[in-house]
């Protein structure tokens, strides 16, 4: 979509209407820069968000929501609670697939967590487990798109872009939104019709010291004064062009991005270097571990970026799409992510950051309680699970979320929510609420109407707020 043609004055007017709680000096600064820090609309519990995205769909029956009926019926045909005329490849027999390993009560709260997640089990009393999350599409890309942008199709601003737009940058030397190891679909961290300055900055953890985690970050000239002079000349030309052609959000975003990029050249290299972290911290996350190194470095960097003032950090961890041989594949996925994710919570808490940092862990959907056999001939021990958007599990921690609490329940199959159903629109509304943003008022006028992250849906899940 094309970005809206919107003047500074009209942007200020729309901001004043949509952000009634903003202080006057915030509005003046916002009129000068779309990235200027802005006050929330009401008192916030969280200042920032870390989104741990488990791409592929973690299996909630195996990790958080076991069902006794499915265990007892393992390997037998069950009457699936769905329209059996729907095309579901490899699930025509509807064989019950028992939970992999044991899922036990953990901590004083008794939250159910699998033996496959021993590190997550150690933080049970810090997390809020949602067991009846619901999405609208059973295919990976549309479901992932909805989780990140609120829609299953189209090009809309991602959650991080909306938050950057709503709150601005806490640290003017860094982007408001950073995506670590993002999906190839740039829509998942794009800004769409919002000013381009709010899009996510892609970060890839380097595999060697010669690589930069952020593209084009290095100053090839090696001369800060010369670089500053070149940027000043380019910016004068850009502003002259904008004055001749009329205000344009893309051009404004480009100007802001160039300024941020220049400041990042002196700030970011040291920030993204984790070699200065203590050995104890690196060990806590699993840096250097055979299974954990990549995700450990990503989670440790997420903490550093959040601590430095980045509003929204997104960490993508793939490998959760288990259509086949889930009994061998799932433990590997858990081993790669369990320790880094749990360490992030422990590290944030030890530094006094968890109270005002909201951490969200989830995939785009979950997996079915019945098996999937793509070959049609494999023994059930080699089966996997199909996609399940009807209900799945996610957890949240910090940022004013109720700790040690389980919300939501599913039926005997672990398929349909019985209580505590949380749609992705509700989840988005709750995340924004914890940041002091009203999801119905955080809007941008585009194509003749006001758009928002939750579209025309969404309710804050008040039951999980502390």
From TrEMBL:
InterPro entries: Alkaline_phosphatase_core_sf, DUF1501, TAT_signal
PANTHER family tied to this protein: BLL7424 PROTEIN, DUF1501 DOMAIN-CONTAINING PROTEIN
Protein name: Sulfatase
Source organism of the structure: Prosthecobacter vanneervenii
